[in-house]
């Protein structure tokens, strides 16, 4: 199998997807990445909307290497079997390093803000549930170009805003969860 610059006689460490019982998957105890209840709810909502799109990566014994948040969301949804890819032939150090790299490399990406604004506005006009995108309300409003349409408030105003559970889009009155 030729894989670009990957040695042609070497197999990918995880080359196929299989189904595995959620109960048999073992979260990595030293996982440095955290998942809040709110983020798990977002992942669960994403799974409900689009289905399961990315397998959980495990070692041969069922130890989770990548996909801890998806696993927690599956448990929350009562899903009993999920797609997994098994990474074979990795040393303990390679597994530990990949747990960190998988999370950090995603954070190193950026946004084309002009393209993001166009895409968000298009979804918004199509009456798509913007909560499914994972943006917080202030970040979504800013990315959509709505952040400059307000005046700075006082400290008292900020206290009242902190108490609100929803933020209302000034362009369309859509409510976004804070």
Fold and architecture overview:
The protein is of the alpha+beta class and 178 residues long. It folds into two domains: 17-107, Conserved hypothetical protein from pyrococcus furiosus pfu- 392566-001, ParB domain, CATH 3.90.1530.10; 113-177, no CATH class. 39% of the residues lie in helices and 13% in strands. It is built from six helices and six strands, in the order βαββαβααααββ. The chain has helices at 37-50, 68-77, 92-107, 113-125, 137-143, 155-163; strands at 17-21, 56-58, 64-66, 81-86, 166-168, 175-177. The strands form two sheets. The chain has a four-stranded mixed β-sheet with strand order 1-4-2-3. It has a two-stranded antiparallel sheet with strand order 5-6. Helix 1 packs across helix 2 (68-77). The longest helix has 16 residues, at 92-107. The model has no long low-confidence stretch (mean pLDDT 85).
Gist?
The protein is of the alpha+beta class and 178 residues long.
Q: Roughly how much helix do the residues carry, as a percent range?
A: 25-40%
CATH class of the largest domain: Alpha Beta
- For this structure, the CATH topology of the largest domain is Conserved hypothetical protein from pyrococcus furiosus pfu- 392566-001, ParB domain
Strand content: 5-15%
Q: Biggest sheet, open or closed, and with what strands and sense? A: 4 strands, mixed
Number of strands: 6
How many DSSP helices?
Answer: 6
Average pLDDT works out at 85
Strand order in the largest sheet: 1-4-2-3
Topology (elements, then pairings):
Elements: E1 17-21, H1 37-50, E2 56-58, E3 64-66, H2 68-77, E4 81-86, H3 92-107, H4 113-125, H5 137-143, H6 155-163, E5 166-168, E6 175-177
Parallel strand pairs: 2-4
Antiparallel strand pairs: 1-4, 2-3, 5-6
